[in-house]
Amino acid sequence: MRPPVVAEYTLSSTEAEHIQSLAESLDVGSVDDERFLTRAAVWAGELPRNLRAFLEDFRATEGSPACRVAGLPVDSERMGPTPVVAGRRRSKAASEIRAELVAVLLSSCLGDVFGWRLQHDGLLIHDLAPRPEHEDTGLGTGSRQHINWHTEDSFHPCRADYVGLLCVRNPAQVPTTIGFLDISLLSDADRRMLAEPVFTFKPDPSYFVSDAEPFPGPDRGSILYGDSADPYLRFDQDYIDLPADVAGVEDAVACLRRAIEVNLIHLSLRSGDFLFLDNRRAVHGRASFQATYVGTERWVKRVNITSDLKRSRHLRGSASDRVIRV
Ligand SMILES: [Fe+2]
C-alpha cells in the first residue's frame, strides 16, 4: 500500500506536557542563540521517543513527502496578536520563544536549522503572517494572491532539505497546498528531458531587500535529479526559465505539472500542528485569503532545515554560523 502523502503523528497529552516542560527547562532567550543551536540536537534527544521514531522514519525511509505532528504546546492566546511587523523589530512573549524552541528541537531530528541573510532579517524562524505592504504579492507574507505550488528556494544549491511550518493560528482554515510527483505519469522521453541541466532557476522577490543589496543570481540545473526511477524534484513554475533551443521542453514541463497536479491535496493547519515538507519530494503552496490585520488571522512559523550544513560552509561566517549570505 502506498504511504500517505502526509504521515500523521498526534501527541498524547502526556507527550505534549513533557515537551512543554523540556522547553521551559531551557534557559534560552532566542532560538538564534548560537549556544542553543549547537546543543539543540542534544536536547532533541529528550523529546518523546515515539515522536523521534516517527520523525526518523520520515527522514530515513522517504515514504511520505510530508508529515504532520499535531498537538504541540503552542499557547496562541499568550503569544499575542498575529504580528504585522516582521523581523528583529518585534519583541516576543516568553510563550512565543518557547514555541520557537520547540520548533527547533523537532527540526533538529531531521537536520540543522538555518536562515538566509536577505530573508526575514536573517532570522532562523520566519513569521508567515499577512503584511499590508505584501497583500498582492505571492510571498508568504502576502494574502490576496494564492501561492502557486513550488520547491522552496529552488534557485539556490543550498536550499532546505526540509521546510517546517508550525501553525500558531489559522482561524479561517486557509489551506496549505501539498503535492508530489507521480513519476509513473511521465514518459521515458520526458523524464530524460527534465533531467537535463538546461533549466534556469530564479530567486523570488522575498530576497530583494534594497537596491544597495546584492540580489542572488539564478542557478542552472535539472528539474529531476537523483535516482532516475524515483527522482527528486526542483521546480517553481513562477521562477524558472526554460531553454529556448530545446525541442519539446515545454511539453515535458506541461506533463510534469499535470503529474503533480493530479495529486495535490489541501490541508488546513490547526494551532499546534507542525507540518514538515521534504523539499526534494514535496511541493507546497497556499490558498489566498482576505487579511484584516486585526491580530487574529493566520500565523505560521517557517523553519528551513538542511541535512548537510557543510554544503553552505563557504557562504556562512563560521562553522557554527547558521545564516547563509546569498
Ligand atoms: Fe514556500
TrEMBL record:
The keyword Ion transport does not apply. Gene3D superfamilies: Clavaminate synthase-like. It comes from the Bacteria. GO terms for molecular function: iron ion binding; oxidoreductase activity. This is Arginine beta-hydroxylase, Fe(II)/alpha-ketoglutarate-dependent. Residues 234-303 form the TauD/TfdA-like domain. The keyword Oxidoreductase applies. It holds the Pfam family TauD. 2-oxoglutarate binds at residues 177, 298, 302. Coiled coil: none annotated. Keywords: Iron, Metal-binding, Oxidoreductase. Belongs to the clavaminate synthase family. The lineage of its organism: Bacteria, Bacillati, Actinomycetota, Actinomycetes, Micromonosporales. Fe cation binds at residues 150, 152, 284. It comes from Micromonospora citrea.
